[in-house]
Design goal:
The chain is α/β, with parallel strands linked by helices. The protein has one domain: Rossmann fold (3-Layer(aba) Sandwich), CATH 3.40.50. Strands 1-2-4-3-5-6-7-8 form an 8-stranded mixed sheet, sandwiched between helices. The longest helix is centred in the middle third of the chain and has 16 residues.
């Protein structure tokens, strides 16, 4: 369903400093140090795992000659916000601290994620800026959820879309936030950060028939207004989750091509 791992890549499972596991994808016979992409999986903060993004991770690794690290993180409702954020931030700092043993160049680092993972990638980019590091060169946000409360037109236009409905979205948010539902913390809704200036270059991908489409479009506008270089692509006829369905949705391979080109330019 999620596509096969690239035959020209290797994959290794490791345990991160926070006790979470991660899959490390790299090109075969690669000699480091290589650029690094940390890829956070989707699943509404309540489900999912690094395996579901292995198709994308392995192909980005091979085509960008990079190490792609796909971490697990604690999931709601057992572990609610900000557990997933904390794990994601710990992953970024741990990877940089262990750059030598991972064979990566910590100065050539990007974050990437789809859906809930896009939310986490956007959040850690903000956190790294505020903390003065690690230095993140780029963020790839694939149909990200960046706003937990405001309802935008695409949520009504595609309320009954395949894979993700508007009702699903609201359920996931409530399960993730629990009694913190209503928080204006940017770590939940990165679009609510006081400033978006100084963030790394961004590539935001959205699907035409997705209730989350306007989340990505609005975040594009906010980043651009803050002076952040941002590329935006909406894939015609695509649904939420399409990047994980390369055998079903042709746009998945087009999106991969676009991601590879973007990362090649910035890394």
């Amino acid at each position: 369903m999620f596509g096969r791992i690239d035959a020209d890549s290797t994959v290794e499972e490791i345990v991160l400093g926070n006790g979470q596991r991660a899959l490390v994808h790299r090109p075969k016979d690669a000699i480091g140090p290589l650029p690094c992409v940390i890829n956070f999986h989707g699943g509404g903060w309540v489900q999912g795992n690094p395996e579901q993004s292995a198709w994308l991770s392995s192909r980005v690794a091979v085509r960008n000659r990079a190490v792609v690290i796909a971490p697990a993180y604690r999931l709601a409702p057992e572990d609610r916000f900000p557990a997933g954020v904390d794990d994601s931030w710990d992953t970024v700092t741990w990877v940089v601290d262990h750059a030598d043993e991972l064979g990566i160049n910590p100065e050539r680092l990007a974050v990437m994620g789809d859906s809930a993972g896009g939310n986490l990638a956007a959040v850690v980019a903000l956190m790294a800026r505020d903390a003065g590091g690690p230095s993140i060169r780029a963020q790839v946000l694939i149909y990200p959820g960046v706003e937990m409360y405001d309802r935008w037109p695409s949520e009504d236009q595609h309320a009954e879309a395949p894979v993700l409905t508007s009702a699903n979205m609201r359920t996931f948010v409530r399960l993730y936030l629990g009694d913190q539902y209503g928080t204006e913390d940017f770590r939940a809704s990165p679009i609510r950060a006081e400033s978006h200036a100084g963030l790394p270059k961004a590539f935001i991908l959205t699907a035409e028939s997705d209730p989350l489409r306007d989340n990505g479009a609005r975040y594009r506008d906010v980043l651009a207004e803050a002076g952040v270089p941002v590329r935006y692509a909406e894939y015609e006829g695509a649904i939420h989750g399409f990047v994980s369905l390369p055998g079903v949705v042709p746009a998945a391979r087009a999106a991969l091509d676009d991601i590879v080109v973007f990362l090649r330019d910035v890394l």
